Amino acid sequence: MAATSSPYYVPVDLRHTALLISDVQTQILARFPKEVQENYLSRIQELLSFFRNQSATLRATSETHYDQFAGVPLIIRHTLPFNLNNNAFVSPYNKLAKWVKGLEEKGFFAKVSADAHYPEFSIPEVLKPEGGWGSSCDEIVLGKLQPNCFASSDCVKYLNARGIRHVVLVGLTTMGSILGSARGGADVDYHIICPREGIIDDDPEVDEFLMAKVLPKFVDVVGIEDVLSLNGC
């Protein structure tokens, strides 16, 4: 019987893999119908649980201090600090300013009560780190100032510190953070993996075009089940 071909361009080693959850935050999720939000968050929880279990198992079998950091998957939550300094980090010359203003006018920022100086403030409750922000070196939270995760934060430093080579990228939205981050990560030579069910946009036509026609030229677009079937142990 012929072997099933891999959905990955190169072999994936979970010991050198990160789950990067980009812009999955209350203000952006609010743009989607409630049932879409619930279904989406349940799929992200599947990935989160998988990476947590893999991290725990691999950490338990590590024998050296080096292995404790470089041989265990990493989970990163990346958020935009909406309302920080009245959104002065968004240049009026950047067309994103219009998008941010639109979110504000629709009242999406009014629901945020926590301090925007802390990047965990807008993460949905079901996706927050176990034990809270800063409780584990395997689950970190970063703020950023641009959609591209690799351009305006310390993300690359954390990835390099852990010897990460593969990045499982999920988040909101396809035409926003995902497009920018997928291209940005590939440009600095990370193996980017985009689970299809972990990426959505409120424009289905654009979402389908980008995921089917554009991103596969730069990254591996796979199913969530393809990620869940990986084994790092």
From TrEMBL:
SUPFAM superfamilies: Isochorismatase-like hydrolases. Keywords: Hydrolase. GO terms for molecular function: hydrolase activity. The keyword ATP-binding does not apply. InterPro entries: Isochorismatase-like_dom, Isochorismatase-like_hydrls, Isochorismatase-like_sf. It holds the Pfam family Isochorismatase. Residues 17-225 form the Isochorismatase-like domain. It comes from the Eukaryota. Belongs to the isochorismatase family. This is Isochorismatase hydrolase. It comes from Periconia macrospinosa.
